[in-house]
UniProtKB/TrEMBL annotation:
Binding site for GTP: 108-115, 191-195, 249-252
Role, per record: Involved in targeting and insertion of nascent membrane proteins into the cytoplasmic membrane. Binds to the hydrophobic signal sequence of the ribosome-nascent chain (RNC) as it emerges from the ribosomes. The SRP-RNC complex is then targeted to the cytoplasmic membrane where it interacts with the SRP receptor FtsY.
Designated name of the protein: Signal recognition particle protein
Keyword flag Nucleotide-binding: yes
Catalytic activity: GTP + H2O = GDP + phosphate + H(+)
Lineage: Bacteria, Bacillati, Bacillota, Bacilli, Lactobacillales
E.C. designation(s): 3.6.5.4
Domain spans labelled AAA+ ATPase: 100-278
Family designation: Belongs to the GTP-binding SRP family. SRP54 subfamily.
Protein origin, superkingdom: Bacteria
The species this protein was found in: Companilactobacillus keshanensis
Keyword Cytoplasm: yes
Length: 297
């Protein structure tokens, strides 16, 4: 279960409050110290933690006591509300083009889960909208990447446009888009190359693909297990590409939950989907309120 560490830690904090009467300023201070520790241990970005704790403290101290809730329940509710707010409040749907095709560009570091998520997204669109997506194989550096995309595509029943590994990916994308127009595909999902870390050459290539394709969605795919690093890398991609959304992968294995809490605050961009397993149906729409509940356990 994701967030085990964080949720256990927070529950322990709140259990010390249960049954108490009115909370004193000292109680609030103690609780906030524990919340702060819990978030830092969960690898949430330091500035994000600082702001979060400040928000909760101000609200907790200034709150009118509600008759229906005990003071401790009230603090828990404020934390719940603020966690939800931190992650963006509402689920944000995929950007759609007014005319076909809607173009989705997947970006991210190598191993983050781009290709898997491209497949999951296609399956999601096929299941929910009877969509007819086509993939474009834009990762020309790893022959295995094209094979992997083809395997995924076969599993979801969608075609792949590819030209092997010898051509400029920008040309491949251009030809792929022409193919999509000819086939009247309603979605084009562009898989792009990743690297182990951000580098100028990759960013330049991704920028050229973006300028050619004018994607409706640039989805940054982030491995949630990398915590704060995921948020930092997201910021880097956003600065270069002005991403439109984030997919957080591997939440099934993430016991800390730092990335989910930091990424929205650091980039200002919404998390749109979460990956919760290797299988192609393990993609879910991201709901900030549900995630906050999950974190609070
Ligand atoms: P890419 O290099 O960014 O294209 O990453 P891949 O799509 O090849 O994924 C890298 C590894 O992460 C593969 O072994 C995937 O099966 C795995 N993976 C991707 N998404 C998830 C997820 O949500 N949960 C788990 N447990 N594994 C995932």
């Amino acid at each position: 279960m994701a967030f085990e560490g964080l949720s256990e830690r927070l529950q322990k904090v709140f259990s010390t409050l249960r049954g108490k009467g009115k909370l004193s300023e000292d109680d609030v201070r103690k609780v906030m110290r524990e919340v702060r520790m819990a978030l830092l241990e969960a690898d949430v970005n330091f500035d994000v933690v600082k702001n979060f704790v400040k928000q909760v403290r101000e609200r907790a101290l200034g709150a009118e006591v509600m008759d229906s809730l005990s003071p401790s329940q009230q603090v828990i509710k404020i934390v719940d509300d603020e966690l939800t707010k931190l992650m963006g409040e509402e689920a944000v749907p995929l950007n759609k083009s007014p005319h076909i095709p809607t173009i989705i560009m997947m970006v991210g570091l190598q191993g983050a889960g781009k290709t898997t998520t491209a497949g999951k997204l296609a399956k999601y669109l096929i299941n929910n909208e009877k969509a007819r997506p086509i993939f474009i194989a834009g990762d020309v550096y790893r022959p295995a990447a094209i094979e992997q995309l083809k395997t995924v595509a076969e599993q979801v029943g969608a075609p792949v446009y590819e030209e092997g590994t010898d051509k400029d990916p920008v040309d491949i994308v251009k030809n792929g888009l022409a193919k999509a127009a000819e086939n009247k595909n309603d979605y084009v999902i562009i898989d792009t190359a990743g690297r182990l870390e951000i580098d100028d050459k990759l960013m330049d290539e991704l920028t050229r693909i973006k300028d050619l394709a004018h994607p409706n969605e640039i989805l940054f795919v982030a491995d949630s297990m990398t915590g704060q690093v995921a948020a930092k890398v997201a910021h880097g991609f956003d600065e270069q590409l002005d991403i439109t959304g984030v997919v957080l992968t591997k939440l099934d294995g993430d016991t800390r939950g730092g990335a989910a809490l930091s990424i929205r605050a650091v980039t200002g961009k919404p998390i749109k989907f979460i990956g919760q397993g290797e299988k192609l149906d393990q993609l879910d729409v991201f709901h900030p309120d549900r995630m906050a509940n999950r974190i609070l356990g």
